[in-house]
């Protein structure tokens, strides 16, 4: 209850990419090693997500669709540990409220699976069926019952591009998970799930960029960094290529952006920004989280230590010298 009070309730689902984000996080939380995402019409008519995770026992399905039904955390401080991405127990209920949802799932040890249909928050059916182990969600006609929100969406092409960018980030943040994305039946992304971050960068950004990467790996008290950064030559006119993940989450932080750009100072021209894919593992006791329904604001308890860790390890990578 305390936790729920600390978490502001509100709208979780803004657009098709929000559905994909929540369902992919659930799949990863369920221990999936492979996740397939299929979208039609920018996700407005269909989003299908299949995982090979732990599945949901039939008797627990209706419960999972209740607001604030989560078994994942008991303390807000647990939010930024690597153990789970979901925490609010709001995603399934929010999605089911504004779409036609079909769920097919089976746990590893159950002989039969289950199929559950819920539309506009109204339960339609729950029956036993044969199914592979894991979970498939089909989300059809998002916002079919809320025309005002449907009207607010951009073109299917633009919504589709948001989803592609999101899935790429999810793939980059979870090198241990094989991620496959199909857009209108066309293969758009497929990562191996072999833990090799460089392979994923290659898959997402292509060969040219991948040739120009410098590895980063560094340990500091309570902070571990690893990933790749672009040679100073590979810089862009905007920040879209500054990727970093904190404990497996894509989170924006002014402090980290500043540290990255300071490390490149003198190496890239003004108004140019480096390419980075950095994974920061930070002891949760250094983090202070302020939770909103759709985003997380992050503050660091020891700002100087984080800044210096990022700065030093990037500077070492760029100059090739230990500081
Ligand atoms: P949260 O992720 O915050 O716990 P959600 O509404 O996203 O809340 O999901 C509710 C619950 O449904 C989860 O806690 C989990 O037990 C179950 N669940 C959802 N998706 C999956 C999945 N793909 N595989 C296994 N269990 C799932
Ligand atoms: Mg969730």
UniProtKB/TrEMBL annotation:
This is DNA mismatch repair protein MutL. It comes from Hominifimenecus microfluidus. It comes from the Bacteria. Residues 201-319 form the DNA mismatch repair protein S5 domain. Belongs to the DNA mismatch repair MutL/HexB family. Coiled coil: none annotated. This protein is involved in the repair of mismatches in DNA. It is required for dam-dependent methyl-directed DNA mismatch repair. May act as a 'molecular matchmaker', a protein that promotes the formation of a stable complex between two or more DNA-binding proteins in an ATP-dependent manner without itself being part of a final effector complex. The chain holds residues 8 to 330 of 686 of the full protein.
């Amino acid at each position: 209850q305390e936790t729920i009070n600390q978490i502001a309730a509100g709208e979780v689902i803004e657009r098709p990419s929000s559905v994909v984000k929540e369902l992919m996080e659930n799949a990863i939380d369920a221990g999936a090693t492979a996740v397939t995402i299929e979208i039609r019409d920018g996700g407005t008519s269909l989003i299908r997500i299949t995982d090979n995770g732990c599945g949901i026992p039939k008797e627990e399905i209706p419960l999972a669709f209740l607001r604030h039904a989560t078994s994942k955390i008991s303390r807000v401080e647990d939010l930024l540990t690597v153990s789970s991405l979901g925490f609010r127990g709001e995603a399934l209920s929010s999605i089911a409220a504004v779409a036609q949802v079909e769920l097919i799932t089976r746990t590893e040890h159950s002989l039969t699976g289950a199929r559950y249909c819920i539309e506009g928050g109204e339960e339609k059916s729950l029956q036993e069926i044969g199914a592979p182990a894991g979970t498939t969600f089909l989300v059809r006609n998002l916002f079919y019952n809320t025309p005002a929100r449907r009207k607010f969406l951009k073109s299917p092409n633009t919504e589709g591009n948001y989803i592609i960018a999101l899935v790429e980030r999810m793939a980059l943040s979870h090198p241990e998970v094989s991620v496959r994305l199909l857009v209108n039946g066309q293969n758009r992304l497929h990562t191996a799930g072999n833990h090799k971050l460089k392979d994923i960068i290659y898959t997402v950004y292509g060969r040219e960029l991948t040739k120009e990467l410098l590895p980063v790996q560094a340990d500091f008290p309570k902070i571990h960094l690893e990933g790749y950064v672009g040679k100073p030559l590979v810089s862009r006119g905007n920040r879209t290529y500054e990727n970093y993940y904190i404990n497996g989450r894509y989170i924006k932080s002014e402090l980290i952006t500043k540290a990255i750009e300071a490390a490149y100072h003198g190496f890239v021209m003004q108004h140019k920004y480096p390419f980075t894919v950095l994974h920061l593992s930070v002891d949760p006791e250094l983090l202070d989280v302020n939770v909103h329904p759709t985003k997380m604001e992050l503050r660091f308890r020891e700002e100087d230590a984080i800044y210096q860790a990022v700065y030093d390890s990037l500077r070492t990578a760029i100059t090739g010298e230990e500081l």
